[in-house]
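Reference record:
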Amino acid sequence: PSQELVALGLANAVGGLCSAYPIAGSFSRSAVNDATGAATNLAGGLTAALVLLTLTCLTSWFYFLPKFCLAAIVITSVASLVDFAEARYLLRVKRSDFGLWLAAFVGTLVLGVERGIVLAVVSSLLLIIVESARPQVAVLWYAASSSTPDFVNVKLRDGRLVEGVLVARLGASMYFANVSFVRERLAALLALDKQLPPIEYLVLEMTACVTVDSAAVHSLFLFRRELEERGIVLVFAAVGNRVDRVLRRAGFVEAAGEDHFQHSVLAAVRFCLRQREQSRRSLPNGGDVAVVAQSSIAVEAAGYPAYPAYDV
């Protein structure tokens, strides 16, 4: 491929000195050449000789030949350049990627190569914006039966919800385009099932959130204030260094409290349980994660349903 580009460049450089027409390659002609079994540069010379012979001696024979006959030759050869197997793979794996492939394919056929490529690039950028503007917000379940008890985004048979504590995972960075969506999803989680005991703590797992902008910080201030008015404490888990620096510069860490930022979900839940038991003064200080399983089992035994799966 690089040799062809060099050849085209040199041909245009020399042709420009002689007022010649611009010289360019054609995918369709290359496909026809490849379909006939061409393997060396000699095929190009033979093709040029045949074209010269046709123009000088055979034009009268081809004058009344319908153009669609030539189009059929080109279409048959160009079809080999389209990877339909890849299209079937994209359709099976992810339909949005197949939509991009289809946009590039149809755009190239209808609008031309340049405009088709531009359409594919613009469609890709729009898809990135749409997906980042609607990040996944998922409930994390407490898996007590695993070898290392943890909170996971898996629908387990023995998955439990901690009484009074809701753990949610944010699946992307927060910026001006998705902060409203994130707040709406979190609010929907808090109000999803009125039969459950009231939520006292919301733990937001931030592993996938690698950056936040000023609009996101402002939204977090407002969201935290709204939760406080409802008697819900906002706690963060696994906040990255970059996000932590931005939140500290904005004064959010100082406003929320240093202890409201924990290194893991388990540590955050332990903190919530200690705070709850201290406020109730019914159990000694220093509750452990064992209370998680006990409280969740007590919730289910009392007749409350398990927290419904909510993964968007």
In short: The beta strands are 137-139, 141-143, 150-152, 165-170, 201-205, 233-237, 261-262.
